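quick q for whoever's on today - can somebody do inverse folding on this one?? i tried earlier but teh output was garbage lol. tokens:
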């Protein structure tokens, strides 16, 4: 399960001798600053987040992050609402000046008919010294995609060989773009391949990433063709069905999966999970909503079969890539990442 909060993060108690006049202080807390979507997207980039998210993973593995299990609110479809989902995550990295709570709303598919994206979201950044709200950041999942991409870049850094410069993307939406940008930051000059159910969308992804990153990108016709071309494979799909087979992968391949974040999702087959070096962001979370969940349910793995959490590799507690083993990195997204990108966003946006 998830680690208990470290003692240093235990709930504080009010000193018994605190004067009543201080308890009744009428000094007002300043209102939080509001940053709109256009401001956020024009000033925050995935390259800004990589070092902060890497440090957060390391702190998480050392027990220095207070990160509760994510909350999920389902919005059922009625005449006045939904369908949709809201995911609430948050966390505090010990020693930092802020902590963050995030609401990410997804799968509001009826929005498309109104010309709107299928969801939205906000980050609430709090002052860790006095508990006051510093900022409400309208990011509509942009910061979530940025911190997810940062985790992908960190996975490339630690779990692949420096010579692995062929990178594939199964699923070509917003998260794939963030993964590609982060990969370019840690492995510049890579050659990209893309496959998606929508061939036109995959080609558009390739054209955009080629122009933005200066890397060659090619759209391919199948997951099998992509795996034959790429040593590093990102999967970021809705997770409604498995997207590749173990037999498709080259020796020494690294699969970085981020599509499974609910108990109903699965991108990777159980036989791959059970026959690889399995790394994840947080064991207590992937066992319930990540790829590991399906392997546990099938009796093919136990939590003891997890090789490492990503933070353990970042800290040097366990080696990452050692040879031609198959590595799977399961990223479900943690409150530690949200705390890290919230801090980065506040530090940049507060200076505007």
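ok took a stab at it. sequence:
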């Amino acid at each position: 399960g998830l680690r208990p909060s470290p003692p240093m993060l235990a709930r504080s108690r009010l000193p018994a001798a605190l004067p009543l006049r201080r308890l009744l202080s009428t000094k007002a807390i300043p209102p939080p600053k509001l940053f709109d979507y256009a401001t956020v997207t024009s000033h925050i980039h995935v390259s800004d987040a990589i070092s902060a998210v890497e440090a957060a993973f390391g702190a998480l593995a050392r027990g220095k992050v207070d990160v509760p299990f994510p909350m999920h609110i389902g919005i059922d479809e009625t005449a006045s609402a939904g369908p949709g989902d809201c995911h609430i995550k948050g966390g505090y990295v010990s020693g930092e000046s802020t902590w963050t709570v995030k609401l990410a709303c997804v799968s509001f598919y009826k929005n498309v008919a109104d010309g709107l994206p299928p969801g939205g979201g906000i980050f609430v950044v709090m002052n860790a010294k006095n508990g006051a709200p510093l900022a409400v950041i309208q990011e509509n999942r942009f910061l979530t995609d940025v911190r997810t991409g940062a985790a992908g870049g960190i996975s490339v850094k630690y779990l692949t060989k420096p010579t692995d410069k062929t990178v594939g993307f199964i699923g070509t939406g917003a998260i794939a773009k963030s993964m590609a940008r982060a990969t370019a930051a840690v492995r510049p000059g890579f050659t990209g391949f893309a496959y998606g159910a929508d061939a036109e969308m995959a080609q558009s992804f390739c054209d955009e990433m080629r122009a933005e990153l200066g890397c060659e990108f090619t759209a391919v016709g199948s997951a099998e063709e992509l795996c034959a071309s790429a040593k590093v494979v990102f999967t970021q799909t809705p997770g409604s069905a498995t997207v590749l087979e173990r037999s498709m992968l080259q020796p020494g391949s690294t699969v970085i999966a981020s599509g499974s974040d609910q108990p109903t999702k699965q991108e990777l087959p159980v036989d791959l999970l059970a026959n690889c070096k399995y790394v994840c962001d947080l064991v207590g979370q992937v066992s319930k909503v990540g790829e590991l969940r399906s392997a546990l349910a099938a009796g093919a793995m136990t939590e003891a079969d997890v090789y490492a959490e990503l933070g353990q590799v970042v800290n040097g507690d366990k080696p990452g890539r050692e040879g031609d083993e198959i590595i799977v990195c399961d990223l479900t997204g943690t409150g530690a990442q949200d705390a890290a990108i919230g801090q980065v966003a506040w530090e940049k946006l507060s200076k505007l």
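fwiw The CA atoms of residues 278 and 305 lie 8 Å apart. also The first helix runs from residue 20 to 23. so keep that in mind when u check it
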